[in-house]
Inverse folding.
């Protein structure tokens, strides 16, 4: 199995795109490229060029984006710490795509007893799924 440091760093555009897709406003609305561009003070086409990798950002712009999305500036870096942060966001993105975040959000409203029953049911279904795939 390869170590995180063995893989090339993700491009700035991919990291930015992940933030735009994952982060939500306080009221739950997703961000749009248009509003991010407007609030950061650049054109929509400039932001799309960053996402596509046609342009590389200046440090000041990366700082503004980090502050805007509430992430550490290191998120856009290449250090070991940056890769850890990026890995956490990549996992969140993966879970989000699989609907896990929606399940967790709904489960947060359940009592501990009901939540325990739900977890037991999930374990039961997972074990049935494993039995069907291995047999």
């Amino acid at each position: 199995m390869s170590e995180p440091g063995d893989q090339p760093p993700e491009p700035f555009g991919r990291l930015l795109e992940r933030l735009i897709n994952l982060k939500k406003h306080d009221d739950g609305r997703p961000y749009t490229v248009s509003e991010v561009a407007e609030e950061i003070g650049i054109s929509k086409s400039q932001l799309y060029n960053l996402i596509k990798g046609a342009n590389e950002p200046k440090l000041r712009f990366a700082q503004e984006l980090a502050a805007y999305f509430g992430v550490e500036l290191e998120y856009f870096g290449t250090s070991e710490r940056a890769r850890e942060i990026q890995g956490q966001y990549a996992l969140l993105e993966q879970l989000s795509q699989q609907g896990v975040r929606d399940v967790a959000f709904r489960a947060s409203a359940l009592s501990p007893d009901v939540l325990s029953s739900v977890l037991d049911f999930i374990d039961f279904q997972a074990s049935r799924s494993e039995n069907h795939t291995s047999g």
Q: What stands out?
A: Residues 9-98 form a domain with the 434 Repressor (Amino-terminal Domain) fold (CATH 1.10.260.40). The two ends are 27 Å apart (CA to CA). The chain has a mean pLDDT of 85. The chain is about 65% helix and 0% strand.
